[in-house]
Amino acid sequence: MNRSEAMRLLRVRDLRMAIHGDGPPVRAVDGVSFDIAAGETFALVGESGCGKSMTALSIMRLLPEAAAISGGMVELQGENLLALPEAAMRDVRGRRVAMIFQEPGLSLNPVMTVGEQIAESVRRHTALTGAAVDARVLELLESVRMPDAQRRVTEYPFQLSGGMKQRVMIAIALACDPELLIADEPTTALDVTVQAQVLDLLRELQRERGMAMLLITHDLGVVAQMAQRVAVMYAGQIVETAPVAHFFASPAHPYSQKLFAALPERAAGGRPLAAIPGAVPPLSLEFSGCRFAERCEHKLAHCADVLPEWHGAGEQQMVRCHLYGSDQRPPRGLPSGRGVMGDQHKTEPEAGLGSSPVNHQSSLLEVEELEVFFPIRKGLLQRTAGHVRAVDGVSFSIAPGRTLGLVGESGCGKTTVGKGLLRLLQPTAGRVSLAGEDFLALGAEALRQKRREVQIIFQDPYASLNPRIRIGDALEEGMLALGVGGDAAGRQARIDALLGEVGLAPGVRSRYPHEFSGGQRQRIAIARALSVEPKLIVCDEPTSALDVSVQAQILNLLKRLQKEKGLAYLFISHNMAVIEHMADEVAVMYLGRIVERGAVQDVLRDPRHPYTKSLLAAVPVADPQAQRPVLRLSGDLPSPVNPPAGCHFHPRCPVAEAACAQAYPEERALTAQHHVRCHLAR
Amino acid sequence: MPPLPFRIEVLWSDGLVWLLVIAVVAYAVYARRHPHLRAPWSRVARSASAMAAATVLCCFVLVGLLDSLHYRPLLPPQGGKPVYATEVRSVLDLVLTPLRAQREKTYSAPFATELYAKETIKRADGVETREFPRLRHGGKHLESPADSAADIALRAFRGVVAALLAWFAFALLLSAALARQQGGGIEAAWRSLWSGLTPLPWRAVLATLGVLAVIAGPVVALAPYYHVLGTDKVGQDVLYQSLKSIRTGLVIGTLATLVTLPFALVLGVMAGYFKGWVDDVIQYVYTTLSSIPGVLLIAAAVLMMQVYIENHADLFPSTEIRADVRLLALCVILGLTSWTGLCRLLRGEALKLRELEYIQAARAFGVSHWRIMMRHITPNLMHIVMIALVMDFSGLVLAEAVLSYVGVGVDPSMISFGTMINSARLEMAREPMVWWSLASAFFFMLLLVLAANLFADAVRDAFDPRVAMAGGRA
Amino acid sequence: MSSYLLRRVLYGLLVLAGVNVLTFALFFFVNSPDDMARAQLGAKRVTPEAVEKWKQQRGYDKPLFLNEKMSGIERVTETVFYTKSVRLFAFDFGASDQGRNIGYDISTRMWPSLAVQLPAFVIGLLVYITFALLLALFRASAFDVGGVVFCVLLMSISSLFYIIGGQYVFGKLWSLAPISGYDGGFEALKFLVLPVLIGVASGIGGSTRWYRSIFIEEISKDYVRTARAKGIGELRVLFRHVLQNAMIPILTGVVVVIPLLFMGALITESFFGIPGLGSYTIDAINQQDFAIVRAMVFLGSVLYVIGLILTDISYTLVDPRVRFS
User: Fold this and answer.
1) Do A257 and A306 have their domain in common?
2) B236 to B140, B148, B451: CA distances (angstroms)
């Protein structure tokens, strides 16, 4: 923080805000200070609930009604925004400081045209009128690389894809050339290929306009790609600030280090991830010491009682940790160099993992040509006018004790595959044989018996447990329905054992779901699936709703259970790093079909399908020095109602040839295990 | 063995009312044990306006329950067998015997000692004059009607003092109870009570009770001697009528909603859970029913019921029983014609719930549809049912008045707010106006409905998942 | 779009068929025509001959569904169900039990009803929405809290008392308007003022609260935050963004009642002596004239179904998501 005063565009000092509700006030932002220089990208990174979004909203003074700023200062070029009257603040919003939000789908007015929404901002802050406004709107849409900009002016948000909506949001934000753009998780709701497009766009715009950017994110990969400086937030406070290069080279705060260690791509060769024990303390508490002390491995005697001061940890790197105090030396075990990076691209896969040939005779689950179509009814008599081809001929197999990763972007049909093979959705065609028996042909009673063998874990930990039912009863439900676990006493013993297996105390069984955190709920959901001793578990994005440190706990748990019980997993995820960490084989889905499958290191290290390649290239890597091939997909996922003729991927494919538009490519085997559906793959 | 001085008569509506009381008690016990119910109810209990409203409602309910214990008194012995009257009375009638029995000839104003209209009276000396005759009961203890003001003031003052003493004693008892609970002294409890520092807003309850006591005290003191709210056309005490109307309002407000519940719940859950043709059929049924304007459908049904009752007069041994059956039939008709709104709401929620992951998980275990609906869907809809229950109550009380006015409400012989207004309205044009029946009905109804609305608001705020979720997920 | 509307119309006809069967069952199954005759004639005059005569005069002497005595199509048409129920679809309401032509009565009496209801509806809508917008603008302030309490208080008063109180204060005490009566042409105006005013006043509590809750819900949505982030003032946010989006739930509740305005207001009309369909219905109920009640039930359903279709159409005006799909 030895920058000159003149360079400081935004100065935030000791910012405090609190949310007032039923109980004591929740101090979501509790003494936050940072500076942003003109033209710089400053990233505020942290897990959910750490107060990063509330910090941004406090700067804009757009807090929800139950929340109020309780102290501090926000200076924009020397002018204290918190002291401005509301009318003057309105002149700042949209003109000098603009903001884009996480959910582009909800952030645009659904009944107003795109052009009108942009024009509103132009008219508010400039003297332009009439045709000049229209011209400016078009110019803005073009500047955010909106395809078909002229036509979009008169369209409504629902006619645009998620990526295009976020472009509109950006156009609104840029309407008056703001000095500072606040981007609050701008790509979290987007698919990875679209995220890459939007991040590229933001980076280019910022460079062109010399605009400063406050980027709020939970994704270290996004930080590495976008920011010059970074601040880590934990429980309402900033615990570390550093230039990005220093931060990624040697994170100083124990929390920052743990964040890196919990990333699935950092675990070499299937070793357990480093998880952070415990949970973030509730922000309604009064803190006297370090907020991270309880979860810290390097806790000192006074950490819980004495608030840590800021200490220098290296060049321009500041950390709020007693370990860096003048009389302290960072203890052993606190890596201070690049060692923590554990460069995964050079890591050789562990021998034997995923390289053994898949024996079809021994496969537990075999899926052949699975189809799940949803009819579209139209017209007077509601005749079926077409189908949503959610799953359009998918085949794969899983051997006992192995994990198949099913990866793809939202809308590709991967979740429908999981629900279809469990018959939670009725497949329209295909065969699913489970240990040799045709699962889809079973009658009601036989199906009920067979349901023991395959279970499912879902994405949303808050929706996966009935809030009205005690944990013990929830775990008992499957045993009762399927007649597992013997008599009542036997079932109770089994519930205790299951809770122990997922790392919960037996006492929790008489409690209700609302008393548990997201991670704990996901553990309970796992225990529930295990209660009927399945052989296969469909894991449908089980960690997507969790923070990275909690995700690490759950992934470790799933791995351990697999080893102990010989479980097979169908692991559905959009997250490449998680798939890489968890899976033996992987199948990549695009628009209802598997375009590439094979052993995980074959597919992810040496992708052959252009879609797989671009998917991998789009993943932001938590390493500012990482050099990845730039392979950007244009456009969005087409509709599964009318998939493009020929190869479904050809309209977006960077290397498509004429033949690609003619016929859907047959699957071809590159090696015994590596299959790909592409005319061009050799 | 001498015959009992009364024979208990359980009217249909009495049975249902007491069943409802048992159900409410059972629910309270159940809710205490389940945190997902205890939490919203304790939110309701922490709201001062809700507790004040609940205090008022409790008074109304007390009156209504007393009026739901019916008996037939023993007639004076004639020959061997004990004979009971055909007339059915309630415990409330017994308590209000002076009010019930002291009938005047026709209208008299509140606190009047003379009739409202002049009559031709033949005096002892044979001269006929037109004058206001003295009332048979109101103020008959007075030597001269001119003394009434002083007499009323004195009795009212005594009533207020007695009521305030009782109220003060209650406040002391409450502090003692609070002191025991919190472990401090009575004095400390008294202070925290009055500075509003108790976890439950007892101060609001006490204030409400205080206001009620100050009003009720003088009324109780005066009622045996005067018609505090006047008399109606046939000389019946208006205060008595107002108190009797309470039960009618409460019965309609609660029982009619209870009739809607099974339809709305079963059909709504089934439509939302099964979708497909089941949903189509149920949607068609409720669209059809709701397409008929409510009052017309009720009117048609009540007309048919009237014809039925007229043609089967022999089924009903007494007017009270006939009126009671008509009241119940009205509740059933109101229920049958008004389940569609709640059903639509529940269907929408069930549609959302069925896609939730815990229900998918239950289906993955092969749990039966019936069990999923019972265990997973219905309990998660009960907050909507609870909100509908309390929100509908006040609407039904208001609807009774309108329907009785239109002539398709309760039996004309049954005392209700509607029949009170209906008969009083005919006298609007009189000069000077007969205003007291209307005014009494107005104030009693306003108090009941306002209390119900305030309570319903607090319940809705406490049970609304949007409010609850915001707290739960944070 | 057009096939969607056509489907809605057909569904509406199906609903009306259901209403038709339901009312028929209600009026002819719960009680037989003999029961009705007895109830109408009164206990003293009931003789088998009188009952037969009563039925014959009103056409209730035919079989319910199938006339065995007739042949061909008349086996079906010469029945109570056909003449009294199916004919309603042709808006042939027949004669009332007192012998009046119901169709004619309806066509003359709907206009006074509309003359009261339409102004009350329009003025009411403006007043409620304005009041609700004000409450939403100053939400969580003392004005808002007081306004909501005021609304709850107004909601808790029976509509009967609005009329009685209005008649007493404006008609009797201040003599500003005639208490009851009606006249043709412009003379009607002076008779309309009070019922319209009372109609508006009695709805303030409930409607304002309902609109307010819609606005408050819209205000909490993300797009409103986006609008504020542009630097737009609160008034423009409210009128340009919130109001436009709130029109969707508002229309659901409002458009459906527009056709029903023809039906009049039962209580208001009878209190004010307005010769509309509302007082017509009340008189019919008091005289136990089943034919008129049946006709009004059917008419009400027809108007409701029309309201549903109008609602569908109105969505296309305010919601581009419906318009373009």
Assistant:
1) yes
2) 16, 21, 27
Whether A625 is covered by a domain: the verdict is yes
Q: What are phi and psi of A609, to 5 degrees?
A: -80, 135
Q: How many domains would you assign to chain A? A: 2
**Does pLDDT of B473 surpass 50?**
no
- Residue A158 with chain C: CB contacts under 8 Å: 320-321, 324
Chain B residues with beta carbon closer than 8 angstroms to that of A465: 358
What is the Cα–Cα distance from A368 to A397, expressed in whole angstroms? 8
Domain holding A405: CATH number? 3.40.50.300
Angstrom distance (rounded) from CA B337 to CA B333 = 6
Within this chain, do residues B214 and B293 fall inside the same structural domain, yes or no?
no
Please report whether residue B23 resides in a domain.
Answer: no
Cβ of B296 and C281 within 8 Å? yes
pLDDT in tens, A120-170: 999 999 999 889 999 999 999 999 989 889 999 999 999 998 889 999 999
A434–chain B Cβ distance below 8 A for any pair: no
- Cβ–Cβ below 8 Å for C7 and A101: no
The DSSP bridge pattern shows strands A26-37 and A79-80 to be unpaired
C-alpha A518/C-alpha A503 separation (Å) is: 14
Q: Using CA atoms of B275, B277, B283, B287 in order, give the dihedral in degrees to the nearest 10.
A: 160
Q: What residues of chain A, 589 to 608, have a C-beta less than 8 Å from chain C? A: none
pLDDT band at B1, cuts 50/70/90?
low
The residue type of A608 is R
First CA to last CA distance, chain B: 70
Tell me the DSSP string of C58-94.
Answer: HT--S-SS--TTS-TTHHHHSSHIIIIIGGGGGT---
Crossing angle for the helix pair B48-66 and B436-463, to the nearest 10 degrees: 130
Where would I find the H helices in C100-176? 102-137, 142-155, 159-166
Residues of B in contact with C300 (CB under 8 A): 291-293, 296
Is residue A316 domain-shared with residue A420, that is, in the same domain? no
ipTM computed for the complex: 0.88
Which of A511, A676, A657, A501 is CA-nearest to residue A590? A676
Residues B219, B349, single domain; the answer is no
| Residue B132 sits in the same domain as residue B264 | no
Q: Which domain holds residue A285?
A: 230-337
**Rounded CA gap, C84 and C20, in Å?**
10
Q: In terms of residue numbers, what domain contains B206?
A: 111-227
Locus of tokens 């976008």:
A226
How many Å apart are CA A152 and CA A115, to the nearest integer?
7
Residues A659 and A574 in one domain: yes
pTM (predicted TM-score): 0.88
Do A423 and A292 belong to one domain? no
For residue A86, pLDDT beyond 50: yes
d(CA A152, CA A166): 13
CA dihedral of residues B89, B92, B95, B96 (deg, nearest 10): -80
* Closest Cβ–Cβ partner in A19, A49, A477 for B362: A477
Helices B319-337 and B382-406: crossing angle, nearest 10°? 130
Nearest-by-CA chain C residue for B310: C39
> Cβ separation of A467 and B35 shorter than 8 Å?
no
Structure tokens at C11: 């569904």
Contact A248, A620 (CB under 8 A): no
Q: Do C230 and A60 touch (CB under 8 A)?
A: no
Residues C244, A111: C-beta atoms closer than 8 Å? yes
Task: Quote the number of domains for chain B.
Answer: 2
Residues B274 and B193 in one domain: no
Whether B152 and B289 map to the same domain: the answer is no
| Segment (H or E) for A385 | strand A383-398
CA angle C294, C299, C302 (to 5 degrees): 130
